[in-house]
Design goal:
The chain is an all-alpha fold. The protein has helices at 22-33, 36-48, 52-80, 84-94, 102-134, 143-154, 157-177, 179-207, 211-219, 228-242, 248-253, 262-290, 301-311, 316-349, 354-368, 370-375, 389-416, 419-425, 431-455. The longest helix is centred in the last third of the chain and has 34 residues, at 316-349. The model is unreliable at 1-9 (pLDDT under 50). Bound molecules: phenylalanine.
């Protein structure tokens, strides 16, 4: 049996197969990280929170908190090689603590359910916009026409239900087939293509004549406008966009070959994800200002600015269609990361086949999706706490569940696991290891808890 000291002879194998290479793993995690969070959510959250100062806090959160959390998740995942619930139970015991660490995995599975329930609805929007674009609906359209098209679409519970159902179906389909076959190929093509198209759009945004205003909005930091709620939103966005704090990366780490460098892989993913988010901002904000739109407009921002821009470009129908296809792919590969923990759990514990597990989990999440579908029409006026049901789901998951999951994950990796185990996974106790350990032991947990305490007003302002 394994004892806490026997760190060096842990050689478990995953029950679900392994990634075929280091590149496959990086692509899969990048596919999970790059999604609606970067292109749909980042611009509107930055817009609602005033721009520059928010972006700066977001970047700090990504580097100082996101990166160590991601490394912790991967190392835990690879060492346990089970679904996140079983991995946490197993390592909890093995490291001489308690099996109850499994609850961290369980919170993650639940967060994945909640997030995907709304993510799938927005994924349905992107899918619908593929068809709208292909039919040339936005050719030469004015800002008010594009806005009307968006509000008419989201105002229809039927249309949202239909597209949500199709998106969920696509997700279940790929997960049921197993992660390796479909996913690796999709991501290999999708991430570079998306990047290229965003660069082309950047050229358009620069020529819109309002690039300066966009740059200014994104990078001139006015800290006076930033309150603790915005700081919490920046922290939550960092977690959401990197897919951390809920076990998605942990589940993917379980299929990672022994010799891959966790630090290198994490750095690659963080860089790609952040680069795409910043690029999205640089594309969207100049268009917002060029068309007299409001950056704080909320979830419709990308679905209004981009169709408008495409509608005025030569070849716009073509580029708009490609763009929404790529965004659908990006959302799709992220959705896979959101269900993987739950599916792996069902396969291991309920002794179901992958296909059965995917249908079961997908069906439950599909049902929960109605809370979001109705938030934009039938229940649009039903508001409490942070707003509609969708607003509350989003707040609860991104700003509460993911950061809390993150604290528990780093505390487990850096305080509960023994030094030998973590050093072994991270490739020795060199300088990078020491930096990781410092950030994971002290900075990340303290910073997260502090931001929470401030946002809920436990620590009063010094005036
Ligand atoms: N990171 C994804 C995005 O930015 C969302 C996601 C969160 C995916 C958590 C998996 C796990 O769109």
């Amino acid at each position: 049996m394994l004892t806490p000291e026997s760190g060096t002879d842990v050689k478990r194998t995953s029950l679900h197969g392994n990634w075929s290479s280091r590149m496959a793993f990086i692509l899969a995690v990048t596919g999970s990280a790059v999604g609606l969070g970067n292109i749909w959510k980042f611009p509107y959250i930055a817009g609602q929170n005033g721009g520059g100062a928010f972006v700066l806090v977001y970047l700090l959160c990504v580097i100082l908190i996101g990166m160590p959390v991601m490394m912790s998740e991967i190392l835990i995942g690879r060492r346990g090689r089970r679904n996140p619930v079983a991995t946490m139970a197993l390592l909890g015991e093995e490291e001489g603590a308690s099996k109850n660490w499994k609850w961290v995995g369980a919170i993650g599975v639940l967060a994945g359910f909640f997030i995907l329930s709304y993510y799938s609805v927005i994924g349905g929007w992107t899918l619908t916009y593929v068809f709208k674009s292909a039919m040339g609906s936005f050719n030469g359209a004015s800002p008010s026409e594009v806005e009307l098209a968006f509000s008419t679409f989201t105002g229809s519970a039927w249309k949202l239900t239909l597209s949500h159902t199709i998106f969920m179906g696509l997700t279940v389909f790929v997960v049921a087939r197993g992660v390796e076959r479909g996913l690796e190929k999709a991501v290999r093509f999708m991430v570079p293509a998306l990047l290229l198209l965003m660069l082309a759009l950047l050229g358009y945004a620069i020529s819109s004549g309002h690039f300066g205003a966009g740059l200014d909005f994104m990078f001139s930091a006015d800290f006076g406008a930033l309150d603790w709620d915005s700081v919490l939103a920046a922290l939550g966005q960092a977690f959401f966009t990197l897919s951390i704090g809920m076990g998605a990366v942990m589940a993917y780490g379980a299929y990672l070959p022994e010799e891959t460098s966790i630090t290198g892989a994490s750095a690659a993913v963080v860089a790609a994800d952040t680069g795409i988010a910043i690029l999205a901002g640089l594309v969207i904000f100049p268009l917002v200002f060029a068309n007299n739109l409001n950056p704080a407009d909320g979830p419709g921002l990308v679905f209004i600015t981009l169709p408008l821009a495409f509608g005025q470009m030569t070849g716009g129908t073509f580029f708009a269609t490609i763009f929404f296809v790529l965004l659908t792919f990006a959302a799709w590969t992220s959705a896979l990361g959101l269900v993987e923990p739950a599916v792996a759990f069902c396969v291991e514990h309920l002794k179901r086949s992958r296909a059965q597990a995917a249908v079961l989990v997908g069906g439950l999440i599909w049902l929960m999706g109605f809370a979001t579908v109705f938030s934009f029409n039938l229940l649009a006026d039903f508001k409490f706490y942070k707003g509609t049901l969708f607003d509350n789901l989003d707040h609860l998951t991104s700003n509460v569940m993911l950061p809390l999951g993150g604290v528990l994950i780093v505390v487990f990796a850096a305080w509960v696991m023994c030094r030998n185990s973590t050093a072994e996974e991270l490739g020795g106790a060199g300088r990078l290891y020491k930096i990781w350990r410092f950030l994971a032991r002290y900075l990340a947990p303290v910073a997260i808890l502090f931001v929470f305490a401030k946002a809920i007003g436990v620590i009063p302002e010094l005036s």
